[in-house]
Amino acid sequence: MRHRDTHSREEILERTIQIIEHHGEAAVRVKDLCDEVGVAVTSLYHFFDNREGLIEAAQVERYERELRRAADDITDHISACRTQREFRSLVRRLLDMLCAHERAGARLNRINVIGSVQGRPDLERRIGAAQTAFHHDLAAALELPQQRGWIRRDLDLAALTAWFFGQITSRILIEIGDSDIDGRAWNRMATEAITAVMFGEVRSIRSAA
Question: Helix 41-48 and helix 51-79: axis angle, to 10°?
Answer without folding.
Answer: 60
